[in-house]
User: Fold this.
Amino acid sequence: MSHHFINIDCYEKFVKDFHTLSGLDLNFYKENQMKRRINNFMNTHNHKDDYTSFLKALSRDPKLYDAFFKHLTINVTQFFRDVKLWDVFQSKIIPDLVQNKHMLKLWSAGCSAGQEAYTMAIIMNEHFPSAKYNISGSDIDINVLKQAQLGSYDERDFASTPEHILQKYFTLEDRRYQVKDNLKKNISFREHNLLTDSFEQGFDFIACRNVVIYFTDDAKDLLYKKFADSLNPGGILFTGSTEHLFGKNHLGLKPVSSFFYQKQ
Ligand SMILES: C[S@@+](CC[C@H](N)C(=O)[O-])C[C@H]1O[C@@H](n2cnc3c(N)ncnc32)[C@H](O)[C@@H]1O
Assistant:
């Protein structure tokens, strides 16, 4: 097995040039993790030790560019991911929210191919059929957003999904599971960069899970502040199972259950 070492000094230049090429600023992401992911990709695509030629290849070859972007953004997810937390969402969080508000505004931030947003819609439809709501899903990666809009999934996406839910909300077409239209009607998807774009206001519920793992602490601080600002008082932020908001009391987000925080 051979190891390939990349001249570390060039990383800064790579980040700058890749920002120009893609609009994605890797300065917001933890350097060591990003380097490791980039190096892995370069090794498996035979680009060995040279950022400069790799960048050239990225700008010439859209397929390579797409594959690299996908590799960097890590879209892995599934319906009902962390199913016990979705039980909390259904039994504790939404009942309070629907009592206080006529029309709920929910956001799946970093939604990947939409599995989280559709999970919310399924729960709303199953347990709160008369509630009015809209769900917006956003991600930085337009390829996953296209899949989200189509609503077409692989069997693997449903490892945590009860069989009767799969039967009720999806149709099997050419070995793919297709979301039925009635589930799509309250959902919209859009391209949005959590690090640099401005945020809409007035949300009652924001799920941002398994997105910030590679963000620097500064980037996370800024992001949670922006989430706090865009929530209505009483609104809820739902974070990933490794993402705690310890020591962030100044944001006015109070834990109400593990991984659920309420804006005061
Ligand atoms: C692992 S998926 C998480 C999907 C879902 N939230 C979950 O918990 O299963 C992470 C997603 O975050 C997106 N992402 C990464 N950086 C982002 C950014 N700066 N702005 C918006 N989305 C970003 C990636 O494209 C990817 O689809």
